[in-house]
Amino acid sequence: MNKIIIGLAVGFFSAWQAASAADIVGVITFKGTPPLEYTNNLIMQDPTCGQMYSSPPTTHFYAVGQNGELADVVVSLKDANGKNITGQSTGPSQPAALLDQKGCLYTPQILAIQTGQKLLVRNSDQCVHNVHTVSTAGNPEHNEAQLPGGPDLNFTFPKPEMFMTFKCDIHPWMFAWVSIFDNPYFSTSGKDGKFIIKNVPPGKYTLEADHRKLGAQTAEIEVKDSDVTQNFTFEVK
Ligand SMILES: [Cu+2]
């Protein structure tokens, strides 16, 4: 008798869980030959930065794997009309995100956070960096020198924005692009090209995939009671 009741309870709970939210998953693929990256000769001319490299690094705007897996694509959920989902940030309760300066480069170069979520900016190098944010969406401009071994800088941003620029005024090749969402429904594709947006409530949405160089693509999706798969393919046109 008890077993039946427990079985029913577990069954009911699983059904309820499944009906309340689902994950959106997919793979981002790059088709064709990615454009050539730029060789960073400037970095070699800097005494401190240059000594960390035996040959000049290149940019990595197109992070394409062996089988076309495309990393650094920011996938985000919009409403059914393609408008930003706002007022749903859980940023203040999330763990801090980290943007490091290592080898005189920002790493990661593409990062996504929520409004109100802590973003720590670290200097892992033996030289001074200057962390300078440039917003086109009304987020505050920060411009702070950071000494080697200095404490992490701690930022939060109030406004949603795609690819807000972080630069360094001392090293003109240093850039990162941080996207900010007013909800938790976004993901950045990894080296395997995969992304996952978790716990999306049922409903009709627009899913948007943004690559900083290759532009944006959208797909209409509906979340019901099971996971939704939506892949995207980018190419150079
Ligand atoms: Cu710098």
Which percent range fits the helix content? 10-25%
What's the mean pLDDT score?
93
Strand content: 35-45%
Q: List the bound ligands.
A: copper (II) ion
Runs in which pLDDT lies below 50 for 5 or more consecutive residues are 6-18
Described by strand count, sense and barrel closure, the largest sheet is:
5 strands, mixed
Total beta-strand segments: 17
Count helical runs.
3
Question: What do these coordinates show?
Answer:
This protein has 237 residues and is mainly β. 11% of the residues lie in helices and 41% in strands. The chain is built from three helices and 17 strands. The chain has helices spanning 2-20, 42-45, 47-50, and strands at 22-31, 74-79, 97-102, 105-107, 110-114, 119-123, 129-134, 143-146, 153-155, 161-168, 175-181, 186-188, 194-200, 203-211, 215-223, 228-229, 232-235. The strands form four sheets. The chain has a five-stranded mixed sheet, with no helix packed on it. A hairpin with a 2-residue loop joins strand 3 (97-102) and strand 4 (105-107). The longest helix has 19 residues, at 2-20. The protein is globular and about 55 Å long. The N and C termini lie far apart (65 Å). Residues 6-18 have low confidence and may be disordered. It binds copper (II) ion. Copper (II) ion binds next to loops.
